[in-house]
Amino acid sequence: MSSLPKCPACSSEYTYEDGAMYVCPECAHEWPKTAAEGAEDDGHEAGREFRDANGNVLEDGDSVTVIKDLKVKGSSLVVKVGTKVRNIRLVDGDHDIDCKIDGIGAMKLKSAFVKKS
C-alpha cells in the first residue's frame, strides 16, 4: 500500500506526488506536501480575517451589499451597485467570497467591493 495521504477533498486513495504538491487524479484537488496530515481544511487559514471595504470583519453566512458596478467576466452581465448578496462563503484566494447572485448565478467576489449589511 501507498504511504501517501488520502485526498482531503474526496478521500480518494489514488493520490500522487508532483514536485512539492500532492495531486488527486479523481477530483483534481492539489495541496502542498507541507500541509499537516489529518488537519481539518475549512476552506481558509485559521486566524485569517476577511474584511469588507469599510473594515468590518466578514464571516461565513453574512449578507453583503455590492458597492461598485462589477462586470461579469465572459458575459455582458453587470452586478449593479446595491445588489444584496446573502449567505456568503469565505475562501482563500484572490476572490475571497463565494456566493450566488439572483439572476446571475454562482460567482466569486473580492471583499474589497462589498460592505457588510
UniProtKB/TrEMBL annotation:
Residues 51-116 form the Protein YjdM C-terminal domain. Transmembrane segments: none annotated. InterPro entries: YjdM, YjdM_C, YjdM_N. Residues 35-55 are annotated as: Disordered. Gene3D superfamilies: 2.20.25.10, SH3 Domains (2.30.30.40). SUPFAM superfamilies: Prokaryotic SH3-related domain, Zinc beta-ribbon. Residues 3-32 form the Protein YjdM N-terminal domain. NCBIfam families: phnA (TIGR00686). Belongs to the YjdM family. This is Protein YjdM.
